[in-house]
Amino acid sequence: MGTFTNDNSYIGIVGAGSIGVAWAVVFATQGYPVRLYEVATDRIINAKEEFLSTITELSKFDLIERDINSVASLLSIETELEGITDKAIHIQECIPEIKEDKQQLFALLSELTPPDVPIASSTSFLPASTFASDVQHRERCLVIHPGNPPYLLRIAEIVPAPFTSTSIVKKSKQLMIDVQMQPIILSHEKTGFVFNRLQGALLNEAYSLVDDGVVSTEDIDLIVRDALGLRWAVLGPFETVDLNTRGGIKQHAARMGPTYEKIGAERGTDTSWGVELVGKVETERRAKLPLEKWEERVRWRDRAMMTLTVARRKFLGQE
């Protein structure tokens, strides 16, 4: 639930596109007043409609604990930038991926927003150092990148620039926890961060397979949706392969590593899994799941996928 320094504090969001509205849903459904800045008349009208439609749908699925009318009352639209900055406890920028526009906006926000307030970009690819290096009080600038839509994909990548202060990172992490987002703090900037680098690796291979004439786009979607995606709905890629091979991820790397290295070489990529790297991953996995509990976890995985399969059939009308 939102915690405020005074009755007039709020979350400021810049840009009423799909991500801006989605962030508004995330914050408002957890009790935070939201001021959403937008100047385009059509977007102002559409943003209100999208916000109400989304919280209505979430309520139908019992994904909002609060009364829907009280949530709706927490959103206001502002047409002046000063209207979202004077008493903000957090600013979330959600404009298009144009570096020059972000540079100009962050320069303005840094002048209007109190120095201790985080100014975060929702950018999917651009590190904060590419657009916030020259702004006033740049130590409170960073990236907080959500999955889309964030009100369902409850993770947020927190990506500090080299100049971002530790206190701002901690404050941002706590805010994400408060709104029931799982914060993933990157140790340093990396173009595309983690979410899109992982997604991009799969997309690159998918495009290449289509280009090679191996398979259709429809069949790739089918493989991911009904096979890989079903497992990934309950397991990450490391745990997936850890449970796929008796003996765990170390055995999987020994058996499959050379093949994946060959596949990478076909695409001109060095994907060798060195002994030290595999050892590091193995150590982390065994700390999470001792081998003596491997079979129990495999049974848990199967039950989880059975539950998802039943739910999908019901939703898709396949019963």
- How many domains? The number is 2
The second-level CATH architecture of the largest domain is: 3-Layer(aba) Sandwich
How much of the polypeptide forms β-strand, as a percent range? Answer: 5-15%
Q: Estimate the global geometry from the Cα principal axes.
A: globular
Q: Helix count, per DSSP?
A: 11
Distance between the termini: 39 Å
Give the C-level CATH assignment of the largest domain.
Answer: Alpha Beta
Structural class determined from secondary elements: alpha/beta
Looking at this structure, what is the CATH superfamily of the largest domain?
NAD(P)-binding Rossmann-like Domain
Number of strands: 8
Task: Write down the secondary-structure element order.
Answer: EHEHHEEHEEEHEHHHHHH
Strand order of the largest sheet: 3-2-1-4-5-6-7-8
Question: Which ranges are low-confidence, i.e. pLDDT below 50, for 5 or more consecutive residues?
Answer: 1-5
What's this, in brief?
The protein is of the alpha/beta class and 319 residues long. It is 50% helix and 12% strand.
Tag the structure with descriptive keywords.
12% strand; alpha/beta; Rossmann fold; disordered N terminus; eight-stranded mixed beta sheet; 319 residues; single chain
List the helices and strands and how they pair.
Blueprint: E1 10-14, H1 18-28, E2 34-37, H2 41-60, H3 68-72, E3 75-78, E4 88-93, H4 99-112, E5 119-121, E6 141-146, E7 155-160, H5 166-178, E8 182-185, H6 195-211, H7 217-232, H8 237-244, H9 249-266, H10 275-288, H11 294-315
Parallel strand pairs: 1-2, 1-4, 2-3, 4-5, 5-6, 7-8
Antiparallel strand pairs: 6-7
Helix pairs in contact: 1-2, 8-9
